[in-house]
Amino acid sequence: MAASRRNARRRQKPTMSSRCKAFLARLQSGIGALVSLSALVVLGVILYLGMEALRTVPVERIVVTGKIENLRQEALRNVLSGHLDDGLLFLSLRDLQETLEELPWVYTAQLRRRFPDTLEVSVVEQLPIARWGDEAFLNHEARIIEVTDGERWQDLPAIRGPEGSEGRLMNHYQRLLERLRPLELTPTALSEDDYGQLYVRLDNGLELQLGDHDFSLRLQRFMQLWRSNLKDADRLVRRVDMRYAGGAAVAFDQTPQLAGLSENTQAGRQ
């Protein structure tokens, strides 16, 4: 048994040849790892140099499209020139878009790179469709917008009301515009006071009072009253008050008193 163990240990003792092979294997593995690491370093340097080269690619041309009538060209140039230092590839289109859309008159701005050296800018201007209060304007989304040269837009309809009522009053105005068009009447002003009372000014000078509720119903009653009783005397009518439950009060230019229309007078028209 002892002889067998001695023979086993003798057989397991590494020879000089096996030790050399193991050393060479470790050396080969180390060289391979070193080569791989060197390749990664070289690749990293190449990528870095490439990125730096791309970073220096300048924006040589800026192409601006869109119907621009009110946006100041100087303001547009100043914004664009302040965002071009990073070159075409690294330019943040999102940041530039947000900055452009903060300019007066800019509704939306879209940007696109066109290689090798061009930046395309598409601008859609705000379109004021109504005055808001004394100095502001509303766009088609009933958003308050900042404009320059406000005197140019003084012929727009005037809407006035408490803060936060822009959308609701714009909807009322659109309803008035659509419903009164067949009567050849155009609303030129709509206002709401602190008590929620609605007042409408028409293009013929008439003032229409609609109160603080039942907007659609009272507007419909006014339209019926206009067709039946007031159309032929439109230039004489100064004010129509539709806040009465069963009728209306009409004030004429030639008579200082209010002419009340009874429930029976309107019964056939409601």
**How big is the Rg?**
40 Å
Number of domains: 2
- Tell me the major beta sheet: 10 strands, mixed
Helix-strand sequence = HHEHHHEEEEEEHEEEHEEEH
Question: What is the helix tally?
Answer: 8
Q: What ranges have pLDDT less than 50 throughout 5 or more consecutive residues?
A: 256-270
| SS-based class | alpha/beta
Give the mean pLDDT: 82
What characteristic shape results from the CA principal axes? elongated
Percentage of residues in helical conformation: 40-55%
CATH architecture of the largest domain: 3-Layer(aba) Sandwich
Number of strands: 13
Which class of the largest domain in CATH terms?
Alpha Beta
Could you tell me the CATH topology label of the largest domain: Rossmann fold
GO biological process, one term: cell septum assembly
Subunit structure: Part of a complex composed of FtsB, FtsL and FtsQ.
Family: Belongs to the FtsQ/DivIB family. FtsQ subfamily.
Keywords: Cell cycle, Cell division, Cell inner membrane, Cell membrane, Membrane, Transmembrane, Transmembrane helix
